[in-house]
Amino acid sequence: MLLTKIKWIHLGLVASFLIGYMEWGKDQKMFIFQAFADIFEKGLADPVTFLHPFILFPLVGFLGILYALFKSKQSRTLTLLSIGGMALIMLFIFFIGVFMGNVKMILYNLPFMVFMVLEVLALRASRNKPSA
Predict the structure, then answer these.
(1) CB 11 within 8 A of CB 3
(2) Closest listed residue to residue 119, CA positions, set 7, 3, 1
(3) What residues make up the domain containing 31?
(4) pLDDT tens across 56-82, in order?
(5) What is the SS3 assignment for 29?
(6) How many CB atoms within 10 Å of residue 70?
């Protein structure tokens, strides 16, 4: 599989999303990949768990960007909707980190923001590129 620039950015989005980091309460902390494992574990016993918007939208966005990563023809709409779903939780965590002064939350979530901007710029450039 030949990886184009967009596919590399998709891969960066997937990796940076999974290493997103959050802290809450007293001594409560978790990476997004750990949260996904926890959600799937609890979701098997209680499927209603998946219906919370802060779980459903990022999960659907993550699955959408994974689908786009392996799809041969890129869908701009699918990519933007997927990024939007994942950005919901990542921006929320990032801004909480900023407001709380939590450097770990900021630094672990910053790569996702960078890849998100790169993706939007790449999509905009591909849209404005004249057809051959």
Answers:
(1) yes
(2) 7
(3) 5-122
(4) 899 999 999 999 988 888 888 999 999
(5) strand
(6) 9
